[in-house]
User: Which sequence fits this backbone?
């Protein structure tokens, strides 16, 4: 079974240089955090890479791919896995803080439809 | 590795912001350092470094020989190195043999010379199909190769990161090393395109 490459959209093969590297701002933050933490010696690149491969493999082997492919979703999940495993930042801490961020004043970060 | 619901329900952008706040509070990252790394990868590190390596190899036979023998060391000679720059192996494209690079496991890629991988390189369809039917995928990407050209698909890993030394196009004999650099694109060093004469 083969999946056709998209003709347009994020997965489409570009024919020249100059493609945007990050589709959304958080992609670049997630990328930058991993590189910074590695540079600071918080974890080895091999460790992070193994976590990334595991996350991508999990998605690829899932019986039903209910989540669309998003490379940086896996990147972020791998970063959380490594930090959780080594006790730097637990998954619960991230969930709690993310939840708190949703409770900012109504006019902050919320779009009018 | 968990697949619990914790990371399903909360938008990734929010989790990223939460994670950065926590890492900053705990003194593990400085947001200004993160900014600097992102800017560096977006503007300084990139295909241009790789293009300089290739242009040098085209114009200096001794350098070419060193590059094909020990890619990482020869690339270091020009001052390029760093994370994901270890174990770079350079393979030469010729009229008879065409090499193309893929990473079937994730997205192993020689960052110091090519910058960050483009989105299509990370796409599951590219990764799976390039191995099975490279001639068809290359044709879809605009590179038609004759049946007499042997295609070798190179699978990058954390042990070996492949870099393609593309063919120097005919009609560029009079160009200097500096003039050759802009002709060499990222795609030609991944092996999904050929260098075109100006």
Assistant:
């Amino acid at each position: 079974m083969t999946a056709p490459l998209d003709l347009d959209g994020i997965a489409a093969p570009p024919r020249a240089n100059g493609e945007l590297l990050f589709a959304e701002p958080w992609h670049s933050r997630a990328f930058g955090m991993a590189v910074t933490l590695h540079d600071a010696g918080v974890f080895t690149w091999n460790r992070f890479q193994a976590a990334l491969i595991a996350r991508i493999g999990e998605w690829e082997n899932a019986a039903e791919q209910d989540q669309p492919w998003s490379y940086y979703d896996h990147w972020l999940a791998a970063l959380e896995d490594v930090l959780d495993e080594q006790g730097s930042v637990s998954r619960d801490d991230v969930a709690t803080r993310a939840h708190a961020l949703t409770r900012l004043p109504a006019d902050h970060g919320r779009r009018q439809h | 590795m968990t697949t619990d619901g914790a990371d399903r329900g909360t938008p990734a952008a929010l989790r990223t912001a939460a994670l950065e706040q926590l890492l900053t509070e705990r003194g593990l990252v400085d947001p200004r350092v993160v900014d600097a790394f992102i800017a560096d990868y977006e503007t300084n590190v990139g295909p241009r470094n790789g293009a300089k390596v290739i242009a040098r190899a085209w114009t200096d036979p001794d350098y070419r020989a060193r590059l094909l023998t020990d890619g990482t060391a020869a690339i270091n000679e020009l001052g390029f190195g760093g994370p994901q720059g270890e174990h770079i192996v350079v393979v030469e494209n010729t009229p008879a043999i065409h090499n193309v690079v893929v990473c079937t496991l994730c997205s192993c890629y020689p960052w110091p010379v090519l910058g960050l991988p483009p989105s299509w390189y990370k796409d599951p369809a590219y990764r799976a199909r390039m191995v099975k039917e490279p001639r068809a995928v290359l044709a879809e990407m605009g590179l038609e190769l004759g049946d007499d050209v042997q295609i070798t698909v190179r699978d990058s890993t954390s042990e070996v990161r492949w870099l393609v030394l593309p063919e120097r196009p005919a009609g560029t004999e009079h160009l200097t090393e500096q003039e050759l650099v802009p002709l060499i694109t990222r795609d030609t060093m991944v092996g999904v395109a050929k260098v075109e004469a100006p």
Summary: The CA atoms of residues 23 and 60 of chain A lie 21 Å apart.
